[in-house]
Amino acid sequence: MNKRDYYEVLGVSKDATDAEIKSAFRRLAKQYHPDVSKEPDAEAKFKEIQEAYAVLSDESRRKQYDQFGHAAFDGSAGGSGFGGFDASGFDFSDIFDSIFGNSFGFGGSSRSSNRSSRGSDKLMRIRLTFEEAIYGCEKTINIDVDTECPECDGKGGFHETTCEQCHGSGTVTSEQRTLFGTFMTKTTCPKCGGAGKSFEERCSKCRGKGTIRQNKTLSVSIPKGVDNGYRLKLSGKGDAGSNGGPNGDLYLEFIVENHKLFSRDGDDIYLEVPITITEAALGCKKDIPTLYGNIKLTIPAGSNSGDKQRIKGKGVDNANSYRNGDMYIILKVKTPKKLSRTQKDLLEKLDDTDLEDDEIKSFNNYVRKN
After folding, report:
1. H-type alpha helices, 11-58
2. Is residue 58 scored above 60 in pLDDT?
3. Would you kindly state where each structural domain of the chain is located, as residue ranges?
4. Of 257, 285, 282, 265, which is closest to residue 273 (Cα–Cα)?
5. CATH architecture of 6-90
6. CA distance readout (Å), 176 to 78, 108, 167
7. Choice between 30 and 263, residue whose per-residue pLDDT is larger
8. Is the pLDDT of residue 294 over 50?
9. 97: pLDDT confidence band, cut at 50, 70 and 90?
10. Which of 49, 58, 139, 297 is the most buried (most CB within 10 A)?
11. Are 117 and 249 in contact, with CB atoms under 8 Å apart?
């Protein structure tokens, strides 16, 4: 039977990089795995791409193949069913684990628990008043985190010895026979649980975990200008890492209370200012509050409800931006609900005068004609 070119099998060029070859194999292995593919020749194709990858992923074998082709492996014993190179002894376990998540029985994970690992991140929600969020503040918080056990220095025990079965690696290599041939697989050492070591005496304080739960008090500077949902990262303040790994981080997420007068949109502040009908009609100067003290605002004559004025730079001074937001004043003309007899007489006299503007006149004329 004539064998296909290995590069053709994987669909890569002869100058393909190792990464391109691996990527092609991953894609084809997913496509033609007999437990996944419904194609009748999936098993044969799967073995073919295994053989091609076993040769082209190995620098020495690839050089032999580039020079002599399939003839470079004609003398190999056993074979994989295609003649030539025998791929049955090739360890595919690592790449199969990454492709299939170890769900197809290609052996356990080769990862060892004696490797250092980073601690878990923590999230804590903090309530702030409107003013605390605007101006910044200092907060004292209490949080429970996993910290390195002080008794055993995070090791989990005393009088450490190297595991005799895995010789400190945390993994053991075994041979496994499957439908597709024999594979060398790495699994977690059953004796030490992947730690690569054991202790004559387990630490009683942390019960062998290497960490203990501890309540910590932290003083935190909240920057000015934070808003709802903003997260502040405190590096290294999360749970302790294992085997010398770094601590995780602590994230503070803020929940900001509403203000009685001000509302906020990003770094801009909005204030609704109530005015009387006479102030709206005649205009006036009015004291209004801002985040930085009162100012005198000129309200022009003839103002209406919903009119908006912008006061530049009187919004939020955000520590993370390069400029202050603005403040917007929204006028709200208040019509009195209770009038004295004198006030009613004055308004009736005012109504007798021709105060209608063009819009009102146009509307009234339309009504009269129809």
Report:
1. 18-32, 42-56
2. yes
3. 6-90, 122-150+211-256, 262-352
4. 285
5. Orthogonal Bundle (1.10)
6. 17, 11, 21
7. 263
8. yes
9. low
10. 49
11. no
pLDDT, mean of residues 240-255: 90
Q: How far is CA 47 from CA 16, 51, 99, 165, 358, in A?
A: 21, 6, 16, 33, 88
Computed on alpha carbons and rounded to an integer, the radius of gyration of the chain in Å comes to 38
pLDDT the model gives residue 291:
94
Q: Where are the beta strands (DSSP E) in the chain?
A: 122-128, 137-148, 157-162, 171-178, 181-188, 197-202, 211-222, 231-234, 250-256, 262-265, 268-276, 284-288, 295-299, 308-311, 327-334
Specify the length of the chain in residues: 370
Phi, psi of 362 (to 5 degrees): -60, -40
The residue ranking higher by pLDDT, 207 or 76, is 207
Angle between helices 42-56 and 59-68 (to 10 degrees): 100
Residue 315 to residue 203: CA distance in whole angstroms: 57
- Check for a shared fold between 6-90 and 262-352: no
Q: What is the pLDDT of residue 351?
A: 72
pLDDT of residue 94: 56
Q: Name the CATH superfamily, with its identifier, for domain 262-352.
A: Urease metallochaperone UreE, N-terminal domain (2.60.260.20)
Nearest to 14 by CA among 58, 49, 65, 51: 65
pLDDT at 103: 41
Contact between 309 and 271 under an 8 Å Cβ cutoff? The reply is no
Mean pLDDT computed over every residue of the chain: 83
Instruction: Specify the CATH superfamily of domain 122-150+211-256.
Output: Urease metallochaperone UreE, N-terminal domain (2.60.260.20)
For residues 150-169, average pLDDT: 85
Q: What type of residue is 165?
A: Q
How many CA atoms are closer than 13 Å to the CA of 19, on its beta-carbon side?
0
CA–CA distance from 15 to each of 12, 19, 20, 21, 48 (Å)? 8, 12, 10, 10, 20
Report helix, strand or coil for 114. coil
- Give residue for tokens 């059953």: 190
